[in-house]
Amino acid sequence: MADLLTDVEFDMFRKVIYDESGITFSETNRSILDSRLKERLREKQLSSVQDYYKLIMSNPGEMKTMLDSITTNLTRFFRNQPHFDALIHYVVPHVLENKKKNGDTVVRIWSAGCSTGEEPYTIAMILKDILPPPYTFLITASDISLKSLMVGQQGFYPAVRVEGVPEKYLGRFFTKTDSGYQVNKDLMSTIRFDYHNLRNDSGARNLDVIFCRNVLIYFDEAAQLATINRFWDAMGPLSYLFIGHSESLFGMKTQFEFLKTDWACLYQKNIKKDV
User: Fold this and answer.
1) How many angstroms separate the Cα of 255 from the Cα of each of 12, 74, 233, 264, 273?
2) The whole model's pTM is what?
3) pLDDT higher than 60, residue 80
């Protein structure tokens, strides 16, 4: 089958995708949208793009499925190690120092755009390893892809997918099976996987750390700014934001401060300097 979408239909779909998710499709990645929609038409046994458009506009469940199908879920354990080094050596010590002042013992983290769960499980392994008592942690892991969230919730990965996990963590936090590795229940219990569209307010507040890496690159400037502002509202008075190494808030009118550590660059919310 040749190109599925006419120019008019391409504009229709990229507008609804942008309105629903903030994801921007340009001419350069038009073929991706085309191929994913072909799959959905075959699955739903529909013969025309117009019929499928009517379906997603009248069926919220199919809208979610369509958005799921167009997302790219590329991730791995300990991806971009310098970020985790900064978490260990800079962020966690500063978060704990602040918590000592207010008597809070829970570190709250959001892994936004968590894909199949490797990022939140990486964070959980690190915190299990380095947090001193009485401190505990809670991680919320969210994504727009229900299929990816199910993988994360199940916590099972083929052997090739755990190649980046250090041996000391692999033996401690995973159980080897004939077909791969299962995350142990103790670690799984520290993470709550949840469907969330970054176009909306998550409802979270007073978070200490947000990881949202390699997600903003799919948004245009307006959607990026709106997302970043919602992160600000969700974060505590002294908190930290990690974005992808190819992403930046430079030139964006946000209240976050750029922070360069010995390990990696990130962003900080510090309301003391706003008053």
Assistant:
1) 34, 29, 11, 20, 10
2) 0.84
3) yes
